Fold this sequence. Notes:
Number of helices: 3
Number of strands: 16
Shape: globular
CATH architecture: Sandwich
Distance between the termini: 35 Å
Helix content: 10-25%
CATH topology: Jelly Rolls
Largest sheet: 16 strands, mixed
Order of helices and strands: HHEEEEEEEEEEEEEEEEH
Structural class: mainly beta
Amino acid sequence: MHILRTLSIVLIATLAFCSTGKINNAQAADIAGHITRIKSTVTTVRGNETQLLGVGAIIYIGDTIKTGPNARLEMRMLDQGVITLGENSEFKIEDYLFDRDKGVGKVVMNIVVGTFKAVSGRIGEIQNSSFALNSPVATIGIRGTEFWGGPLDGVYNIALLKGKAIFIENAAGRVEITQPGYGTTVGGPNAAPTSPIQWAPAKLQRAVDSVSF
């Protein structure tokens, strides 16, 4: 996989070189982002190895990231998007391509378990780009947004926090949320997302607290 690197990627690659003393071209081509904030124990499974992560660590395509009890993790991605994970979460980066000059933008990520918050980056500036965050119950797509997802009150919830819109889709149906502060619940991969409703401020706060440092 070969894509043109933006200035942010050059900086990330430089960080990697300074911290490890080496980085090869294949590794640079697979960089998805880097860690900007961390709390407690966070690891990544990379190939057959499990590694502890710290601030400044490089995140690669194919990494499976796991947070421990009371942990938090914030990652800044290639296109300046930001992903935050709550405790006891597992998150895998399947693909993260961003080349504004060539018009290439493709993101595929999986939240296997736990809570997350995502702020979309510049990938939305690319026409025909795609962004898919797969949760245990549905796929979430974005249109320049900040959104949250995870278990809450015994069921999986997804809410739009800021921005334009998100859509939530699985085999049973699809809904679009266009108003910040509104959310949907999804009972499972074969249950259609409910019609969006406005969340009470207390519920929104509990959601945000689950990924706050």
